[in-house]
Specification:
Residues 36-47 have a biased composition (Basic and acidic residues). It catalyses: Fe(2+)(in) = Fe(2+)(out). It is found in: Vacuole membrane. Belongs to the CCC1 family. The protein is an all-alpha fold. The protein folds into two domains: 1-82; 84-148, no CATH class. It contains five helices and no strands. The longest helix has 40 residues, at 2-41.
């Protein structure tokens, strides 16, 4: 279980980082192109203003996404690693992850200067939905096997 959890952690962090990098790099391309168009309409534009513009950084976004995923994946892995009984393990994982979602949602809301209750609830509910879907798929594949 620990080995599978760790493999999922690494695979998920890599997937999130690559997806975030591609997404933010596409956003960067669009913003740079838009600034060039707008600058061209204004007789060449103000080059200094374009250079001082805050643009997204794909590498920073990828690192942040991989780190966030890794921290989020460590919580259930550690919560489950030392508990043998399946039902107890399931309850501990749900409780630990729910607490982590509340903390992560609150921290994200404070950093983003958004309403803590609304943002926190969105993170918790989204996390619960992801856990339920993952649990359901794992149970259905695990009990019936993957037929190809």
């Amino acid at each position: 279980m620990v080995l599978t959890g760790f493999a999922g952690l690494v695979a998920g962090a890599c997937s999130m980082a690559i997806g975030e990098f591609v997404s933010v790099y596409s956003q960067l391309d669009i913003e740079v192109t838009q600034m060039r168009r707008e600058g061209g309409r204004e007789n060449g534009g103000d080059r200094e203003e374009t250079e001082n513009e805050k643009l997204p950084n794909p590498v920073q976004a990828a690192i942040a996404s991989a780190l966030a995923f890794t921290i989020g994946a460590i919580v259930p892995l550690l919560a489950a690693a030392f508990i043998g009984d399946h039902k107890v393990r399931l309850g501990v994982v749900v409780a630990a992850v729910s607490l982590a979602l509340v903390v992560f949602g609150g921290v994200g809301a404070v950093l983003g200067r958004t309403p803590v209750m609304r943002s926190g609830a969105r993170v918790v509910i989204g996390g619960w939905m992801a856990m339920a879907i993952t649990f359901g798929l794992t149970k259905s594949i695990g009990s019936s096997g993957l037929q190809m």
